[in-house]
Design brief:
Strand content: 15-25%
CATH class of the largest domain: Alpha Beta
CATH topology of the largest domain: Rossmann fold
Distance between the termini: 79 Å
Structural class: alpha/beta
Shape: elongated
Number of helices: 11
Largest sheet: 10 strands, mixed
Order of helices and strands: EEEEEEEEEEHEHEHEHEHHEEHEEEHHHH
Length: about 425
């Protein structure tokens, strides 16, 4: 039976308190105001004093309004009808389509039992050479995209959504500018990927508590699709906004702050979301790519710093490109020996030569004279950056490998690459 209370003890911004018994942490409540109904969620219990975060904000709420506890936590509807739809952080339609209220699933549950998992062993193709060839994304992997504000990380996510070999894309936006929301919607629609995509979008003007709901909504839906034997790719942007929403709510709860004001359970909160990545032994999979912006390009900031301990590497976006030296996929060895036999050798050889190019570039900038070898490296670096590193390049893995051999042949002699002679004999361009 729902508990109903007709007195609100205090209203502090978006947080209200009531005296109540028998309620649970994260339980939902409905507030009936003179302007209509609003959802709230229990975020603190101190004896019989219960604090609730009001989704629509505290404006319009008065101390005499009715608070009805619903006896359940937040849930999300699940069915094939989700595909092609856009929702907000409360699970309500943002696309003016019909509300979905059947087959409701709880959100924020525990990660999958390890006995139901298998080791990551399949490549997820994206047709982006700096991912597929140099830092391969593996099915069920969890990877952040470290970036600074102003970098095209949302454009990168949209490209991955359109090109990735996944059955379902579930996109979660947190604190998005409205222009970015429209960009995702238009790009996926024009790219033909909207029909296999579900979006949960929180914009900067939406209630803070909805921002915190987005990852759990997204991951609950992704897990349900995975249980239907589908490979699901989860794209989240931006986890720093998610952490900032946690910090804002922690401040209103008067929690003792930790590093730079973030709550002390920041690591656990991030890990509980990333650990939802899974490859089921007898069903589908969930792979997680999540943008983490770094204020001031500071990788020691609490959000990227904690993220680095949880995830299996990172993509480092800088200067509009995925940087080869800042990026790492710790699971790529599980798959890139199964792709083509020249994959590992070519990957290592090209990165080694690109490192030499960086050293030569520094020498040239310092005024040193350039040798013939230096001139070759400079030519190679220019070709590598324009034809491999550019995010506009759309190539299959095999096409990227062939292009790699062409770039090497255009800049060096066979014996200058440091690659095994038997591979050179087989893959070096004939012309």
């Amino acid at each position: 039976m729902n508990k109903v209370y007709n007195r609100i003890e205090s209203i502090n911004g978006n947080v209200i308190t009531v005296r109540a018994n028998g309620v649970k942490y994260k339980e939902l409540a409905q507030i009936n105001t003179r302007f209509g109904k609003s959802l709230a969620q229990v975020n603190k219990i101190d004896g019989d004093i219960v604090s609730l975060q009001v989704f629509a904000g505290g404006q319009g709420v008065s101390t005499g309004d009715e608070v009805r506890f619903l006896g359940r936590e937040m849930r999300v509807s699940f069915s094939e009808d989700l595909l092609g739809r856009i929702f907000n952080g409360s699970g309500e339609p943002r696309d003016k389509g019909p509300a979905l209220t059947e087959n409701m699933k709880p959100i924020g549950g525990p990660s999958v039992n390890p006995t139901k998992r298998i080791l990551a062993n399949r490549m997820m193709r994206t047709n982006i050479p700096m991912i597929d060839m140099f830092n391969t994304l593996v099915v069920s992997q969890k990877l952040p995209i470290f970036s600074i504000s102003g970098e095209p990380y949302n454009q990168l996510l949209a490209r991955i959504a359109m090109q990735a070999e996944a059955d379902v894309i579930v996109l979660g936006g947190m604190g998005l500018k409205y222009d970015d929301f429209l960009y995702f919607k238009d790009a996926l629609s024009k790219g033909g990927a909207l029909s296999k995509t579900v979006m949960f979008i929180h914009t900067a003007s939406d209630p803070t508590v909805e921002c915190m709901m987005i990852p759990d909504m997204v991951l609950a839906v992704a897990e349900q699709f995975a249980l239907q034997n589908k490979d699901v790719l989860v794209l989240l942007t931006d986890m720093t906004n998610f952490a900032d929403a946690m910090k804002e709510i922690a401040i209103t709860q008067e929690q003792v702050p930790s590093n730079r004001g973030y709550p002390g359970d920041l690591y656990s909160q991030l890990a509980s979301r990333y650990e939802k990545a899974v490859d089921f032994a007898d069903s589908g999979s969930v792979t997680v790519l999540a943008v983490t912006t770094m204020p001031g390009d500071d990788v020691t900031h609490p959000v990227p710093d904690n993220t680095g301990y949880i995830t299996e590497g990172q993509y480092y976006l800088k200067g509009g490109r995925i940087e080869p030296f800042g990026s790492l996929s710790r699971l790529k060895q599980n798959v890139n020996g199964k792709t083509r036999k020249d994959h590992r050798a070519l990957m290592d050889g090209m990165i080694r030569l690109y490192s030499s190019y960086k050293e030569t570039l520094e020498k040239r900038n310092m005024g040193f004279s350039m040798s013939r070898w230096d001139e070759k490296l400079l030519k190679y670096g220019d070709l590598f950056e324009s034809r491999m590193m550019s995010l506009s390049v759309n190539l299959s893995l095999e096409g990227a490998l062939d292009l790699g051999w062409e770039i090497l042949a255009d800049c060096f002699e066979r014996d200058e690459t440091g690659i095994k002679s038997d591979l050179i004999e087989e893959f070096w361009p004939k012309s």
